[in-house]
Write a sequence for this structure.
């Protein structure tokens, strides 16, 4: 990642520049020419992709090229219904770029069969027979019923198991391709450093290195390029840049300058571009340095195109171009917004919204600057279509569809990642449960009888397991009481009384609390998580905490199960309950695996990738903070209990934390010394399972620098590995780290300092769990 930052032209397109782009003539496209023949180069699958694209472009009118920059939309409603008049007449018959399924609750076969008809009819009607490419989200896998429902991104990030995650994404890729999806809007590489943000569940976690490793694994395995360079499914790294929006508000500004951009926000993207070659990128809704990323020449065009030499597709988020006009007010009309996006080299507009910035360019065919930019955008979109074989295999093989979904291999990978993605936060010894505690179990809470996989998933209760159904498989005497609604106190006294009575009559209370990211019943007010559902505070929504207190006061042992794509403030729960498991956003096997964990059939091995705060007000809470953000040097360090958690922001459960049913000892840490700025650092440690059961431990390596030229974090993760050890077994882990990875950017220029560094090795980011070794780089 050694590259220079070069100053560029102004971020916003000036009035003069807009006039130049728009020109003076507003004329229609030239007449169609070069009608396709059966021996056209672009129709010959044996020809090189570059030649096929060039030939096709030479035959396309301006409007046909412009059509490649647009999305037909998510077309399917319930029962795979769709408006064929709207679809087939899209863009006045000039063709189209992409299409999406739409409603997630459609069965896979029905949706694929319907889309097959649409795509074939659309392609038949198109003058050059250019196919639409099917694009979709893929957080939990395919967004249709009857497919494998994996845990969400945040949950799978807690596994810290890159090899296993790669196998999971392979299964996702196979299923996406089977239903006809050739392009996914994943992975999300944003850093989850703002816990109030509603989309944390779509992210891997708060650390840049951890996110980069999972991002690389996703892109490589989803695209799965064959020997001829064709990809099974194209990926889209997103959102460039996002995740730390002001106040945790969806679409709000990202605060930061050039050093934050290079050292924090762009870090995982740079790694994925270098190692995995994603085929597309999506700018965020947000502004960075007060310029919308969709029209940000400095950080979108200059960095992505000029510095990184990325020649893939830049696709807007849904309606993001029109938001430049309607929300950010940095364009005076929709055409100006489209021109600014085009100037930032955005190639494809996801939507379509009510106003299309790309469609507004249709009257500018005589402007040579616009025509050239549109041609380049079409070239990139068409290249993606050819590289994914969309031209040659535009529709799925329906005869093989059902046999490609929910295979034994996919379900096993789903089970494996689910087992490793739950985090045991607290355990006073009650877990694994003794059989006597399972004689009579009260399952309580508004999250107990739902599947909570996140916003971008199709939930199927006919095949999935809930917490309640999981507990019923391990106990023959189970009572269930909801206790309260998730986000309001309607009938709370009555519901609480029933829950308390059930708890008093039981030997164990399993209480399920949290935040739901889908509308799972008729009460829409219950949804408090996911895109557009940011959090005013981090306590459990509604009266849930009051319900927990009432259950604890019965004196019955309490195992708390937490569900949701976020970190909750749980200081009361941490002090009052016997055990806490955070499941985050699980897939269809969550309830069954939870039952395995609490009975000891599965030993938990998940580790937090987001820090858990003590108080809702004690944020930001991420582990790799800047020292001056937390310490008041020169002031009297005497705080009341009221002040201290807010000012010091000590995590209740830190990044990297996660308990097991066994004990691990990490010792014998050695780090090479006398290292030059061009050398390697070797870190070794002995890990021993000192407990009585087999288990998995995540060995984590962090570093910091003594005296950098700019403020740097107190520590940054730089390596990790997950190992599996039988009781009494030990192994030596070894990490090789190029000294260049200790470096950082100053005003866009990478540097590695001759300085003193500290290498930390241990089981979490907490100082108490780490062994520190100082080295000098000369």
């Amino acid at each position: 990642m050694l590259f220079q930052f070069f100053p560029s032209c102004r971020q916003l397109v000036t009035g003069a520049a807009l006039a130049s782009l728009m020109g003076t003539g507003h004329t229609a496209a030239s007449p169609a020419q070069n009608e396709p023949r059966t021996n056209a180069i672009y129709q010959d699958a044996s020809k090189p992709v570059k030649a096929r694209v060039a030939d096709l472009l030479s035959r396309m009118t301006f409007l046909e090229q412009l059509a490649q920059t647009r999305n037909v939309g998510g077309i399917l409603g319930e029962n795979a219904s769709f408006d064929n008049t709207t679809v087939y007449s899209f863009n006045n018959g000039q063709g189209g770029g992409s299409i999406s399924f739409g409603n997630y609750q459609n069965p896979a076969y029905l949706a694929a069969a319907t889309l097959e008809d649409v795509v074939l009819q659309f392609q038949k009607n198109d003058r050059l027979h250019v196919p639409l490419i099917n694009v979709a989200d893929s957080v939990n896998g395919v967004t249709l019923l009857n497919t494998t429902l994996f845990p969400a991104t945040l949950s799978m990030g807690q596994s810290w198991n890159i090899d296993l995650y790669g196998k999971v994404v392979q299964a996702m890729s196979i299923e996406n391709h089977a239903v006809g999806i050739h392009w996914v809007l994943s992975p999300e590489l944003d850093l989850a450093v703002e816990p109030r943000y509603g989309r944390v569940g779509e992210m891997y976690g708060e650390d840049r290195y951890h996110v980069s490793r999972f991002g690389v694994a996703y892109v490589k395995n989803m695209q799965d390029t064959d020997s001829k360079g064709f990809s099974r499914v194209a990926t889209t790294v997103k959102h460039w840049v996002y995740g730390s929006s002001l106040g945790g508000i969806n679409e709000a500004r990202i605060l930061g300058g050039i050093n934050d951009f290079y050292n924090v926000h762009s870090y995982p993207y740079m790694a994925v571009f270098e190692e995995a070659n994603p085929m597309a990128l999506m700018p965020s809704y947000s502004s960075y340095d007060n310029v919308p990323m969709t029209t940000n020449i400095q950080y979108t065009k200059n960095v992505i195109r000029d510095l990184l030499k990325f020649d893939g597709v830049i696709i807007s988020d849904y309606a993001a171009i029109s938001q430049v006009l309607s929300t950010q007010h940095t364009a005076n009309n929709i055409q100006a917004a489209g021109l600014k996006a085009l100037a930032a080299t955005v190639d494809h507009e996801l939507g379509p919204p009510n106003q299309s910035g790309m469609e507004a360019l249709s009257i500018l065919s005589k402007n040579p600057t616009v025509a050239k930019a549109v041609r380049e955008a079409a070239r990139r979109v068409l290249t993606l279509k050819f590289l994914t074989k969309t031209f040659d295999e535009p529709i799925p093989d329906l005869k093989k569809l059902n046999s490609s979904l929910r295979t034994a291999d996919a379900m096993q990978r789903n089970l494996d990642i689910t087992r490793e993605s739950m985090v045991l936060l607290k355990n006073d010894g009650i877990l694994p449960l003794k059989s006597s505690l399972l004689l009579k179990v009260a399952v309580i809470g508004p999250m107990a009888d739902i599947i909570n996989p996140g916003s971008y998933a199709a939930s199927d209760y006919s095949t999935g397991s809930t917490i309640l159904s999981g507990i019923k498989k391990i106990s023959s005497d189970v009572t269930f009481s909801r206790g309260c609604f998730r986000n309001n106190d309607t009938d709370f006294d009555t519901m609480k009384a029933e829950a308390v009575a059930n708890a008093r009559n039981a030997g164990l209370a399993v209480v399920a609390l949290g935040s739901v990211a889908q509308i799972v019943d008729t009460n829409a007010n219950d949804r408090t998580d996911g895109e557009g559902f940011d959090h005013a505070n981090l306590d459990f929504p509604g009266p849930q905490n009051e319900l927990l207190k009432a259950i604890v006061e019965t004196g019955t042992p309490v195992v708390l199960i937490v569900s949701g794509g976020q970190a909750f403030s749980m200081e009361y729960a941490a002090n009052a309950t016997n055990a806490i498991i955070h499941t985050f956003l699980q897939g269809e096997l969550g309830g069954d695996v939870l039952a395995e964990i609490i009975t000891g059939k599965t030993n938990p091995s998940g580790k937090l990738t987001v820090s858990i705060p003590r108080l809702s007000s004690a944020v930001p809470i991420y582990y790799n903070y800047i020292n001056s953000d937390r310490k008041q040097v020169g002031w009297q360090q005497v705080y009341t209990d009221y002040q201290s958690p807010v000012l010091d922001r000590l995590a209740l459960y830190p990044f990297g934390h996660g308990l097991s049913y066994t004990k691990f000892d990490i010792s014998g840490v050695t780090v090479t010394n006398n290292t030059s700025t061009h050398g390697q650092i070797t870190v070794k440690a002995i890990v021993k399972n000192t407990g009585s059961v087999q288990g998995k431990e995540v060995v984590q390596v962090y570093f910091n620098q003594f005296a950098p030229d700019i403020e740097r974090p107190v520590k940054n993760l730089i390596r990790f590995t997950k190992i599996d050890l039988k009781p009494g077994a030990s192994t030596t882990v070894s990490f090789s780290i190029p000294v260049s990875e200790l470096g950082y950017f100053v005003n866009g220029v990478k540097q590695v300092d001759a300085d003193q560094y500290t290498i930390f090795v241990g089981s979490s980011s907490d100082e108490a769990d780490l062994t520190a070794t100082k080295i000098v780089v000369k």
Summary: The first strand starts at residue 71 and ends at 76. Residues 420-628 form a domain with the Rossmann fold fold (CATH 3.40.50.1700). The longest helix spans residues 368-387.
